[in-house]
Amino acid sequence: MTSSDNSSAPSFYAISSSARQLFLLLRCISFAPKAQVQITKEGIRLSAEDSRVMQGLAFLDKSLFSTYNYIPPRKSSHQATNDAGDDLESDDDELDLPPFQISLPALLETLQIFGFSETKDRWSSRDSPYAGGMNGAFPRAGSAAAFDTRVLGMTGVCRLSYSGIGEPLCIILEESGVTTTCKLVTYSPEAPEEIPLRRDRLAQKIIMRSSWLHDAINELSSTSPTRLTITASPTAPYFMLSSSGPLGSATVEFSKDPKLLETFQVNRRSVNTYKYSLIRATTKAMAIASKVSIRCDEQGVLSLQFMIEVEGGGVSFVDFRFVPFLPEEADEEAPDDEGGEESEEYDEDE
Fold first, then answer.
1. Which entry of 201, 227, 285, 290 is 20 to 30 Å from 121 by CA?
2. Hey, where are the domains in the chain?
3. What CATH class is the domain 199-346?
């Protein structure tokens, strides 16, 4: 391949049959103005953060695209020679494509440039657990998946390309014979430290339906809370969400019934407090996910990992991590008795 061929070929080129599918996944991390993008041979990793205490990660696997071409930069002949001298068995002369930042609102606006008729989330037509109790599985709003183009009302094509450092991210949208080309400015990446989750030292791992966590978080909002306390214990109450704010406090308890908590791994009692508004920022993911994995390590770092069904029968994951308040900070705004307390309990036996 000649040098002119190399300069004209983009480092990354992909085609998706549904811009809405990408839009709904990326909207899950729209709590921040910018997202850091890392393009790899396996897919596109987009991450966002808020004040170093919350991080959101959406991974667009290459299986979401009908075409996915990734051409990483090559090492120079000088670098390759030095590397060969260090390791005679190494023949890998590829480099990773450097990450970059992009305006997340601009990206989302581009993906819905042909218009987006807001559809209700996949759980909106089901019965409320507060109306009739937890009596088995809830019916879904139709048999189609959340990202089925029949539900989303779109059959257009989205083309993505990126040529390298300093170049814009090019997005070409085609629908009903109309083609729109958008070039989004890319920025130099920051180097934020990833919030570490000690997977080898988990204090709890709970898997449940995302819709039930969504309902619980919404129910707790009635007290205008500022903080959310998550309690997990091997004995009753097994899993409890408590909120506190200027209008009082409220609590939602979950029983350990396997029909409610698909996985319940808690070795000892743990109590951690987080900023409620940050947890609530994940509700876009809660609304379209089928399941959520709630993990917390011994330091109190919380991971909410949502499993989202996508078109074609596959799944994608959106992961959020949160840093807890220090124990003394959590005690500073402990709710008093004057505000009263509301309580709801999820129990399969009701």
1. 227
2. 10-74+96-117+153-187, 199-346
3. alpha beta
Neighbours of 298 (CB within 10 A): 14
Within 10 angstroms of residue 261's Cβ, the number of other Cβ atoms is 22
Question: Confidence class of residue 132 from pLDDT cuts 50, 70 and 90?
Answer: very low
pLDDT tops 90 at residue 180: yes
Q: Kindly report, residue by residue over 69-108, the tens digit of the pLDDT.
A: 999 887 655 555 555 555 544 446 677 899 999 999 999 9
Residue 37 has pLDDT above 90, yes or no: yes
Helix (H, G, I), strand (E, B) or coil at 272: strand
Integer-rounded Cα radius of gyration of the chain? 23
Positive or negative, the Cα torsion across 25, 260, 278, 221?
positive
Q: Which two tokens stand for residue 289?
A: 């996910």
Longest dimension (CA), the chain: 76
How far is it, in rounded angstroms, from Cα 292 to Cα 260? Answer: 12
Nearest to 11 by CA among 124, 107, 99: 99
Q: Class of the 10-74+96-117+153-187 domain?
A: alpha beta
